[in-house]
Amino acid sequence: MLANGRLARAISDMGFYELRRQLEYKAAWCGGQVVVAGRWYPSSKLCSSCGYRLEALSLAIRYWACPDCGMAHERDVNAAINLKHIAVSSTVTACGGEGAGPACERGTKPALVKQESSSKVNYG
């Protein structure tokens, strides 16, 4: 992404490590989990219907049809579906139910509470 001259500075300034660190911190605090796909995971090249993997798919190709099952794919939507499959499969129970990860262990989000100072202040 840094090769894009229009976005390179904004992307490098953003700090992806800090974003991931914050996501992991907030997810742990709320009882959730962050699922990270590998850097080279072929989310755009995999057919979300049958799992067929294209060997080559240039960035210029936005739509493609699976040669195995014939399903038509829009590149970004297909990638999003494949990434969703990764997230769901990492949180599936032995019985096949969704949401078995730490996010389901707590029924509600913890309420924020104002913390008071332990020392008493006398104003008068």
What is the 3D form? flat
Overall mean confidence score, pLDDT: 77
Q: Which value, in Å, is the CA radius of gyration? A: 22 Å
Strand order of the largest sheet: 1-2
In sequence order, what are the helices and strands, one letter per element?
Answer: HHEEH
Biggest sheet record: 2 strands, antiparallel
The overall strand count is 2
- Provide the β-strand percentage band: under 5%
Stretches where pLDDT is under 50 for at least 5 consecutive residues are 100-109
N-C termini distance? 61 Å
What is the tally of helical segments?
Answer: 3
Seen as an oligomer or otherwise, the chain set is: single chain
Please bin the fraction of helical residues: 25-40%
Class computed from helices, strands and strand pairing: mainly alpha
